Amino acid sequence: MTPDDVVVVGSGPSGAMAAAELVARGLRVTLVDYGDDDPGMRARVPDMPFSQFRRTDPAQRGYLLGDRLEGVPRSGVRVGAQLTPPRQFASRAAEGLLPVRSEDFHPMQSLALGGLGAAWGTACFTYSAEECRRIGLDASALATQYRNVIEEAGISGPEVDPNQGYWWEGAPECQPPLELDTNSASILAAYQRDAPRWLRRGFALGRIPLAINSRPHRGREANPYFDTDFYGDVRRSAYRPRYTIERLQRESNFRYVPGCLALAFREDPHGVELDCLRGGERAVFRARRLVLCAGAFNTARLALASLALDDRVTTLLASAYTYFPTLNLRMLGRPAADRRHSMAQLTALFGALTQPERTCSLQLYSYRSLLLFKLIKEMPLAPWAGLLMSRAIVDALAIFGVFFPDENGPTKTLRLGASTTSAAPDVHIAYARPPAQQAIQAELEAGLRKCFWRLGCVPLGRVDPGLAGSIHYAGTIPQSNPVNPRFHTLADGRLGGSERVFVGDNSSWNWLPCKGPTFTAMAGARLVAGHVTASLGERQ
After folding, report:
1. Which of 162, 161, 170, 156 is nearest to 208 (CA)?
2. How far is CA 179 from CA 175, 190, 231, 366, in A?
């Protein structure tokens, strides 16, 4: 049997985009994936507004709370607590099959069809030349691939305003921006009345680019503004990587193989063999090239398990994340329009805007469809009083999620170890931010509180979901590795010490910006796919 040209591991945002680029270039591609999914639960979410099915659907408990109340967190704030029952498949298989050992760093991993992109919030950002330099990416080459990602995924861009260059620069025109909800529109209007002064304070705010259709695109419909985006994929308006996989399955040079847990690879002068566990039995896939897009932790797990290294340890990157519930005073007693989407409405940067290492990014959400019980649980009131209070303030709540950049170093390590619970080896994570990094975060948060007050948004508290709470991870096989210099990636994405294995996801990044990584990671995966093609000899 003739081997494939390329085997891609993982169907997340990077894996889907790498496969799309390779298939478009005429290569024979097999995408190997575990591919957990829950289409039945997803299909239970009605094609109607949230407010309508809350009044009329007798089956709503199943998809809002879960058949076993799995959508009701018992206590505390955990990583992934925002996942509703129809989205919980995104992490459920990984919890047992991809073991992580740590005292205080508990990342969300995924073995789902679409990877973490199955529950991605769809926020999209381009990176500046300075951010790309720190990461190790070619900013000029990214521009072309940004266009290809936009064409594949469909992006509703920000409106033209003086601030958009901070988070959306060098990308072509997109679909028109999505409509703002009443709450966020009032905040943006307050900002724009004195935008120059805000910029002098280092605070730039505007509409956020999202991978959500504002008009039909590639057979997917426009967002209906039903406020159900946290639950189902009604009309497929928000991009999910599985849509790309479904499209590729109609191509003769693409094969999708689900049910596989990738464990290790072996390289020889003719190609690469990938060992997997499938249905309890060993399955082997052979290709001329292998592209690892299994997510930052699992890509590193695979590579550390496969290479002959003296020490199976590496570094990692994870954005610090906190969020601030605030009360938008302009909305008290004011009715909010029912027509809205659930994802982030606005974005902002705050800090030394020309120094990305001293800047944080914000995403602003309103609150309604995640249900009042989550608010009541956090209030120091009796449940009946908490319910009354929540009903009174829900339309005025503005949630600012705040992300901070990260740099690698010796206090942030991932080490491979034997597992007694899974066929995949354990990873042991020790993660601590240096005092200087913590001081910058504290300074930025103090400045943000002042900004919230000036915007008319009264901070109600600060929530820290833990060290891994951002779900923005990268840098486990960086081009420059301060923990294990032999374990690294070359500039073209090739795994150091290898001729035929490439790293296609953001495991190869040297630095992690405060802005969300997914959009640029997808463009970067397509860049690596181009290098893979070149290594085989360009095929027309």
Report:
1. 156
2. 12, 17, 20, 13
Count of Cβ atoms closer than 10 Å to residue 427 Cβ: 28
User: Whole-number mean pLDDT of the chain?
Assistant: 93
463, 283 Cβ separation under 8 angstroms: no
Q: What would the mean pLDDT of 57-68 be, rounded to a whole number?
A: 90
User: What is the model's pTM?
Assistant: 0.95
**Helix 435-455 with 182-192: angle, nearest 10 deg:** 90
Identify the pLDDT of residue 68: 85
DSSP assigned state of 150: H
Closest-CA residue to 30 (of 195, 209, 245): 245
Contacts of 478 (CB under 8 A, 6+ apart): 136, 315, 408, 488, 489, 507, 508, 509, 510
Six-digit token pair at 482? 């301060």
CA 118 to chain centre: 9
Distances (CA, A) of 6 to 251, 285, 300: 15, 10, 19
Nearest to 125 by CA among 498, 521, 409, 532: 521
The Cβ of residue 297 has, within 10 Å, a number of other Cβ atoms equal to 22
**Which amino acid belongs to residue 539?**
R
- Give CA angle at 405 (403, 411), nearest 5°: 115
Q: How far is CA 189 from CA 151, 194, 346, in A?
A: 31, 9, 12
Question: How far apart (Å, rounded) are the C-alpha atoms in residues 178 and 263?
Answer: 42
Q: What is the pLDDT of residue 411?
A: 97
Residue 183 near residue 153, CB atoms below 8 Å: no
SS3 196: helix
Beta strands in 23-138 (DSSP E): 29-32, 100-101
The band of 384, judged by pLDDT with boundaries at 50, 70 and 90, is confident
| Own/partner pairs, 532-537, CB within 8 angstroms, 24+ separation | 532/6, 532/22, 532/289, 532/291, 532/493, 532/502, 533/21, 533/22, 533/25, 533/27, 535/289, 535/492, 535/494, 535/500, 536/5, 536/27, 536/288, 536/289
What is the H or E stretch that residue 18 is in? helix 13-24
**Which residues, in sequence order, are bridge partners of residue 512?**
406
The answer to whether the CB of 287 falls within 8 A of the CB of 6 is: yes
Q: Is 89 helix (H, G, I), strand (E, B) or coil?
A: helix
- Please provide the DSSP assignment of 275-329 as one string: EEEETTEEEEEEEEEEEE-S-HHHHHHHHHHHS--SS-EEE-EE--EEEEEEEEG
- Residue 252's SS3 state is coil
C-alpha closest to that of 414 among 499, 299, 509: 299
238 DSSP 8-state letter:
B
515, two tokens: 């802005």
Distance from the first to the final alpha carbon of the chain: 23
